[in-house]
Specification:
Length: 85
């Protein structure tokens, strides 16, 4: 599967949302003194999962874990099911 961000017609908005998501995770990590935070970004019927980890003194790493596509029509469900196997 190719990168969702490269295919998006609204790449500037997607990138802005990603920055906002990262700031949200950073604030949550600092506020609740966590080591890492799990985040989900939805773009249409795509879900993108991220892990934001506090590494060292104001250094945070954001990793994309996976992308999942949810079909719009019932007819597309068998295609997705075959892809997941």
């Amino acid at each position: 599967m190719t990168s969702l961000h490269a295919k998006s017609k609204f790449k500037p908005k997607t990138n802005k949302d990603l920055v906002r998501l990262d700031k949200f995770c950073k604030t949550a990590i600092e506020t609740y003194q966590l080591n890492a935070y799990f985040a989900v970004q939805t773009i249409g019927t795509y879900l993108v999962f991220y892990l934001v980890e506090y590494v060292y003194s104001q250094l945070y790493v954001m990793m994309e874990l996976d992308q999942v596509y949810f079909p719009i029509l019932i007819e597309y469900i068998p295609m997705v099911w075959g892809f997941l196997r």
